[in-house]
Amino acid sequence: MNKKTIITILLALVAIMLVTIILTRQENEVKSVEAMPKDAQEQKKVQDDAVLTYGISSLMNSASGYTIVIQEYVQQQMINEIKMDGFSMSKNISLGFSPIRTTDSIETVTIRSEQQKVSSRELILKPVPDAPQTLFLYEKIPYHISALSLDTFIPLALYGSFWWDSEYKTCRFCGEQELTEGTDTNEYFKHSPHYYIIGVKFHK
């Protein structure tokens, strides 16, 4: 074997080694990829779904009971109102939501009081408009109650749909972690295409 042949073989071996190193580095490289709707779906599955509880003991001596009112909105216009009667006064009201399944179009909200009164209502959900796949993504935001009064609708929680952000190609639900009555100019109300406001009305 002459010197020229040996050099050619050595160069070929070096080239093979370089290609192998490059491919190995590419396999181990962490790359940034565009977020897809399914990413929001998976994140939603692991979020805490704790019960929302409200203290109402300040009205124990002036109210005999209360009615839960569920208002449904599309693009900030109320299209339906559901009333759930028969709750006696207690120290607390609790709202619970069944586990989120982003392929389901029905959600159940459950109301509980200390008198062991339990009542549930199914909420019809709508898919996120303009999203590239069918997703039912909703989130709950509690209201901060500063004062309780009789015969007045008092909001307890917003339960709203995510919206599609075409600029970032993802589903969003961004805004305050707690709402106050009268803040219907919040980002949720501006952008959420479909939402429920769950509230209470106390009576003598």
What do you see in this structure?
- The model is unreliable at 21-48 (pLDDT under 50).
- Helices cover 20% and strands 39% of the residues.
- It is elongated, with a radius of gyration of 27 Å.
- It has a six-stranded mixed β-sheet, with no helix packed on it. A four-stranded antiparallel β-sheet has the order 1-4-5-6, with no helix packed on it. It has a two-stranded antiparallel sheet with strand order 9-10.
- The chain is an alpha+beta fold and 204 residues long.
Fold topology:
Layout: H1 3-28, H2 37-46, E1 52-55, E2 65-74, E3 77-88, E4 92-97, E5 106-113, E6 118-124, E7 138-144, E8 154-161, E9 163-165, E10 170-172, E11 179-180, H3 187-191, E12 194-203
Parallel strand pairs: 7-11
Antiparallel strand pairs: 1-4, 2-3, 2-12, 4-5, 5-6, 7-8, 8-12, 9-10
